[in-house]
Every structure is written in C-alpha cells, then in structure tokens.
C-alpha cells in the first residue's frame, strides 16, 4: 500500500466531498443555468457551495467559480487593474509565468527579492506605475507564509491592487484581510480537481476572461458543474469545522518529521513563518529522481508538481540563494489530515536510509 506524502500537489478527496458530488453526477444532472425546476435545483446547489467557499474568505467580496486557481490567477492578472505588476521571485508559475507573458505584451514586471528564509520585505520599493502586486499566502514549495496584510497595505499606499494566491493556505488558516483579489482551489482542501474560485472585493472592477453565455454574473462564461461545486462546498465546510484540529495534527506531524531528520540535512525556508504541513529538506549529493524511483510506494516530490518535468532547478530555491546543486538535492514532503504519525515516521526513515545508501554506493 502506498504512503501519500505529496499534499502540496493535491490532497485526498474527503469522503464527505465525494458523497456531496454523487447526487449531482447521477440523478440531478441538469444544467444549473436552465430555467426549469431541475435546473433551478442545480443552481441552488451551486449557490449553497458558493456560500460555503465564501465563508472561508474575508467579508465584502464575491466568489466566482473557475476551472481552478490557474484560471483564477490568469483572470485576475489579465483583467483587473492596469500598469506594472510586482511579485516576489518565489511565486507559483501560474502567477510568475502569466506576469512574464504580460511583460511581453507591454506591461512592466518587477520581481521582488526574498531573503534566505523565503520572505519578501513588506515595504520593498515598488516602481512608479505599478498597478498590481501579487504574493502567495503560503509558498507551495517551501511552505513559507508571507506577510499578506502588510504587503496589501503597501500595495494600496502605492495605488496598486493586491492579488493573493491563497491556494496552499485556504481552509488551513484564516485568510488575512487586505487583498483585492484572492485565488483558491478545491483539490488542495480535499475537494475535487477541476474547480477553483476567484474572490473579488466588491469595490474592484474586473473584466471577463472568458466570453460566451454570460454565466457567473456575466463575468465568467461556461456551464458550471453542480457536482464539482457541491464537492468544493462540502470540502470547504469540512475545512472550516476541522481547521483547529487539522492545524494541531500537522504541527504534531511537523515535530515528528523534525525528530526524524538526520544530521547533515537542512530545512529549506523559514522554520517558523510557515505552514507546518510542508517539509522541504536538502542534503548535498542526493539524487532526488533516483530516490523517488527507488521508493515507488512512497509519494513525495522534488518540488512543484506543475514544474516537475522541466528539468530546471527550482526557481523558488534558487531565489533563496541556493546553488543549482543544492536546489536539485532537495525533496518536498507534504502531509495533512489523513496522514498518520507512524506512516510519516516510517516513510521518512526509509527515505533518509535510501539517500544514505546512495552516498555509500557513490
């Protein structure tokens, strides 16, 4: 039986989310945008789910469903605000690559440096004409928590909007007030893949990214899936109910992981300003690809699943000041609600033992 330790890539589907989806996949399959009774029932299920997702976000905004956080982030960057874009060097590719593409279309792009812990200075200088600042709440590779409230205040003082990629923190911690736009995803909180949301503050104007039937208040065309929405809503309600218990559990697992960490290994990113379900560590000379291949019954990663096939060293780890070799010798262990302490300790012991055997054979 496999041990799953890749919670930053995706999380196991909660039984409650699966149960919520099944009715809308089988019996109640109507289009939620149809005017008949079955369509209205499906539309009502969508709105119940919207309220559940919104309950985990700041007040004073509207939730728009999307196909995922990547679409939500593209939508925000392309269709809200004007002027230049500023973002930390460690942003997820969904923000970084979109911003860099917009740079080829004439918008100025500024990459803000981070310190050795992965933290950006809240009052970093912003170029004149910056119209949007974007920053992740929790970094997907190293788990570092950025000072979102302070960054948002700084952006507003400069006359810019603030976009927060909250994917890795949503449902795991309260979302700070301050952002004008927030992107979230269902499958990172034990919901289904294929659905996310963009939260937009009431005072912010945003243009459509997708045109067509005018769904989602005329801002995001396309037929919504009541099943995916219901699964997302159920996962959000469960996350709200279990937030404190889940947090206590991952802190216990973090301490267990630290206890198992052998001498000579280092933690990447801040050990204190972080989400404790992310354990990114390195040791000189580790062949990560070989390690993953040798331990096929343990699911862990070398970093972001979105960039796993690129062959490039992690831009996040390079931004911390690590060399290419150090970045390539790092592994990411992700755990959460359904991880037991015994399976985590056992998996880590095997990972570290296998790495030591690599050096012995070298």
Describe this structure in words.
The chain is of the alpha/beta class and about 350 residues long. Helices cover about 35% and strands about 15% of the residues. The chain folds into two domains: about 5-10 and about 240-360, Aspartate Aminotransferase, domain 1, CATH 3.90.1150.10; about 15-240, Type I PLP-dependent aspartate aminotransferase-like (Major domain) (Aspartate Aminotransferase, domain 2, 3-Layer(aba) Sandwich). It contains ten helices and twelve strands. The strands form three sheets. Strands 2-8-7-6-5-3-4 form a seven-stranded mixed sheet, sandwiched between helices. A three-stranded antiparallel sheet has the order 9-10-12. Helix 1 (about 15-25) packs antiparallel against helix 6 and helix 2 runs parallel beside helix 6 (about 225-260). The radius of gyration is 21 Å and the shape is globular. It starts with a strand and ends with a helix.
